[in-house]
Amino acid sequence: MYFNVKKTTHFQSETRSGIHPKAQQDVLRQAAGPPLSSSADLPHKPPFGNIKTFKSSRPRGEARGRRRVKANDRERHRMHNLNSALDALRTILPALPDDAKMTKIETLRFARNYIWLHHHPPEEQRSG
Q1: CATH assignment of 71-123, given 4.10.280, 3.30.750, 2.40.128, 3.40.50?
Q2: Fewer CB within 10 Å of terminal CB in the chain, N or C?
Q3: Name one GO biological process term (predicted).
Q4: How many CA atoms lie within 13 Å of 105's alpha carbon, on the beta-carbon side?
């Protein structure tokens, strides 16, 4: 591929695009807009460029740690609710007093079979 590059003197330097470097800088300045006067004028998130140059007020690890703690609390609460519901279901299901506590999956399977047994007529139970 051949480029049409003119030989230039020190005063007439042009790039391959044919635009004088000073003119190129002027175009870029106009596209960027007016300069920001203080740090209060900085946008919350940069529209482009290196995000690492914009530092937040608190360290990243601290925010991540706080989110992790909240997520752990939500999961713990969810598991407590699930275990409470399974305990309530175990009290309703018939079981022998000497039996050990049923596991979660055993409780769910037993409940499903118990419900099926009570909602299907005896003749359907014999054929199925």
Answers
A1: 4.10.280
A2: N
A3: sensory organ development
A4: 0
